[in-house]
Amino acid sequence: MNIYGIEANIKNIPELDPNFTPLYVFNREFLKTAKKTISIAIERAGGEMARVDSFIHGTNEMKAADEYYINRLVKTILWMKGGFRIFVNDKEIYDYLSKAFAKGGIQDFDNVFMSGIFEHEFEVIYTEDIPETKDSPKKIGGHLDGCRIGFDAGGSDRKVSAVVNGESVYSEEVVWFPKTNADPDYHYDGIVSALKSAAQHMPRVDAVGVSSAGVYINNRAMTASLFIKVPKELYDLKVKNIYIKAITDTFGDIPYSVINDGDVSALAGMMSLDVPNVIGIAMGTSEAVGFVDANGCITGWLNELAFVPVDCQPNAEKDEWSLDIGCGVKYFSQDSVIKLAPRAGIKLDESLSPAEKLKIVQGLMENDDKAAVSIYTSIGTYLGHTLAYYFDLYKCSNVLLLGRVMSGKGGDIIIAEAQRVLLDEYPEFAAEMKLSLPDEKFRRVGQSVAAASLPEIKA
């Protein structure tokens, strides 16, 4: 396909999405003819910085291609690492970015979201002096000593484990409804109830670790879908410090850590696989991603790849929240299954919930229905192409694939097809990445048990 004058062609085409055009392939072809240097840095909390040195064409003929490439590059880094301030050393690109990422611009959602979670006005700055990359990865998790509680906050249930010297002595799973409740006291009471329930099964509580969907900075809930119904004024007052307050109110001054559930999944993967450098990709309600680096550290990056663009076809599916197109959520979540079902000839009752629609397709898949097979094969093709992009971004040698979309026969088809595409089209990456599904050891570690290992108990 020709995108702004760049030919981006692939050999392996998703059966149900013939116009799918991997952003990674567009970038690769774009850079073959781009010769003008450009540097961009994005600042996030604590003065941390993500710098990218790249190329553009810098000609009137290729202006649209240059702007598209830079737009997708900046959006990718914003949602991979986070940030509220963009530095750029090209005046024309600065003019473009300052309009595109302004309030009311085409990337208004990115501006508003990043401003909110970093509590700082979003801005674009032109400068010849581009800051260098600065990261502060932390060795976190894997601590098994003492009496610990691990709490895992999900959208439909909450799990808690009491862990003594690395062994789970008690676990419970309780149904709750955080996404439909506007009263933050409902959430607080549920968290405290879980903590107290686990504490009853240990002689003492030395530390608490929390795994929760959302963006967490310094243990604070900057944004999270669990609290989506809570009004902003109550959110700022009662939700941002909800986990800190629940833990300290219940147990006093003990070590604690609150981490995005994607990173905890990656940590659990590292603990079960016994290797670092793990990216965990959970395909469920959305695409949730976590990363543990080659040194076994959590980076503090956002890893919100649901909002990272992966497809550059002009008519790609639009995400209802960000209103952007071609982003990961529409390819690696139940949304992808629902999107592809009618193309496969499967009619789904619109009155059903997304989870119910997914179950119908999964039921067909268990009976080896050909239409269902084509859905999972297409998702596997998406994944094979996109893993090349993720490897380019993360240099991740281990990929753990989780979530309800990956369960059953459909998950086996997705991983087999992704491996086939990688081997056929990106053999240099296929040799570097090992794809895995959760095994029994991972299930024993579990999300809440991995969460329990997060804080370090000081001697």
Written account of the structure:
The protein is of the alpha/beta class. The protein contains 15 helices and 17 strands. It has helices spanning 23-33, 63-81, 91-100, 108-118, 184-199, 232-239, 242-251, 261-273, 334-340, 354-366, 370-394, 408-425, 427-430, 440-445, 447-452, and strands spanning 2-3, 6-7, 36-43, 49-56, 85-88, 123-126, 147-153, 157-164, 167-175, 207-212, 215-217, 220-223, 256-260, 278-283, 287-292, 398-402, 434-436. It starts with a strand and ends in a 7-residue tail after the last helix.
Q: Taking Cα atoms only, what radius of gyration do you get, to the nearest Å?
A: 22 Å
> Biggest β-sheet: count, sense, barrel?
5 strands, mixed
Unreliable stretches: none
Q: Give the mean pLDDT.
A: 94
Strand content: 15-25%
Question: What structural class do the secondary elements suggest?
Answer: alpha/beta
Number of helices: 15
- Compute the number of strand runs: 17
Distance linking N and C termini: 60 Å
Helical percentage: 25-40%
Strand order of the largest sheet: 9-8-7-10-13
**Coarse morphology:** globular
Summarize this entry quickly.
The protein has 15 helices and 17 strands.
Q: Which characteristics define this entry?
A:
39% helix, four-stranded mixed beta sheet, alpha/beta, five-stranded mixed beta sheet, 20% strand, 15 helices
Fold blueprint:
Blueprint: E1 2-3, E2 6-7, H1 23-33, E3 36-43, E4 49-56, H2 63-81, E5 85-88, H3 91-100, H4 108-118, E6 123-126, E7 147-153, E8 157-164, E9 167-175, H5 184-199, E10 207-212, E11 215-217, E12 220-223, H6 232-239, H7 242-251, E13 256-260, H8 261-273, E14 278-283, E15 287-292, H9 334-340, H10 354-366, H11 370-394, E16 398-402, H12 408-425, H13 427-430, E17 434-436, H14 440-445, H15 447-452
Parallel strand pairs: 5-6, 7-10, 10-13, 14-16, 16-17
Antiparallel strand pairs: 1-2, 3-4, 3-5, 7-8, 8-9, 11-12, 14-15
Helix pairs in contact: 2-3, 5-7, 9-10, 10-11, 11-12
